[in-house]
Design a protein that fits this description.
Family: Belongs to the OBAP family.
Distance between the termini: 51 Å
InterPro entries: OBAP-like
Order of helices and strands: HHEEEEHHEHHEEHHH
Structural class: alpha+beta
Number of helices: 9
Organism: Nicotiana attenuata
Protein name: Oil body-associated protein 2a
Pfam family, one: DUF1264
Largest sheet: 6 strands, antiparallel, barrel
Strand order of the largest sheet: 1-2-3-4-6-7
């Protein structure tokens, strides 16, 4: 990891390495082992669409309608955990209150445009999963804004949105090219193979709220009175 991106702190000691290895051998780490897919895509800050980042999602499917993702800023061993995304089917999304739906983004355009990829896995292998994912919605909270140089997770979490399609002129083409070069792929070529992927019959207008309303969402921190006593049973 480059010196500019290393969080403040002492280097790992040999004793710490041994302790970590020992714990790894003795513990099951069951939830982590359920992560069975690595997805690379892009996201932009809801309050500032000019800030766009490459993201790496390590996905656990809890059932056919719900996935949870640990999101990193790279797929390198030194990748930093920068947030979490929850993904739900359109069937579940339609049951949410309208105010909650505003916090979610659709995946159909993101996938069909080739922005969403499964690195080093052939398209024909992931095709069935993509057919499911085009009909999903995601809510992504970024907890560590490494793109602005933060060496630590500073401030409140930020809501992230999908940049949608490359041809909308919204996506940072430089970011896409850098990823294409890294994985030796062509996002444009992938896009042509996904033209016939099914989409939801109806994209809920409450999702991707910024596209229709030009409004994003930002979280602030405020002082509140603490509840100092637990209620009696």
């Amino acid at each position: 990891m480059a010196a500019a991106t290393v969080p403040p702190g002492k280097p790992m000691s040999m004793e710490q390495h041994m302790l970590d290895k020992g714990a790894q051998m003795l513990q099951s780490l069951t939830p982590i082992k359920q992560m069975n897919q690595h997805v690379c895509t892009f996201a932009m800050y809801s309050h500032d669409m000019h800030r766009q980042i490459e993201t790496h999602h390590y996905v656990t499917r809890l059932n056919q309608d719900f996935l949870q993702c640990a999101v990193y800023d790279s797929d390198e061993p030194t990748g930093r955990l920068i947030g979490v995304e929850y993904i739900i089917s359109d069937r579940i999304f339609e049951t949410l209150p309208q105010e909650e739906q505003k916090l979610w983004h659709s995946h159909a355009h993101e996938i069909k445009s080739g922005l969403w990829i499964t690195p080093r896995v052939p398209e024909m292998v992931v095709r069935p999963e993509l057919e499911n994912l085009t009909k999903t919605y995601g809510k992504f909270w970024c907890t560590w804004q490494t793109d602005r140089g933060d060496k630590l997770p500073i401030g409140p979490p930020a809501l992230m949105m999908s940049p949608q399609a490359v041809d909308l002129g919204i996506v940072n083409i430089g970011l896409v090219k850098k990823r294409d070069d890294k994985y030796n792929i062509s996002t444009d070529a992938i896009k042509t193979t996904r033209v016939d992927l099914p989409e939801p019959e109806r994209l809920n207008p409450q999702a991707d709220y910024w596209m229709l309303h030009g409004k994003g969402f930002a979280i602030g921190v405020e002082d509140v009175d603490m509840k100092k006593r637990a209620p009696f049973p």
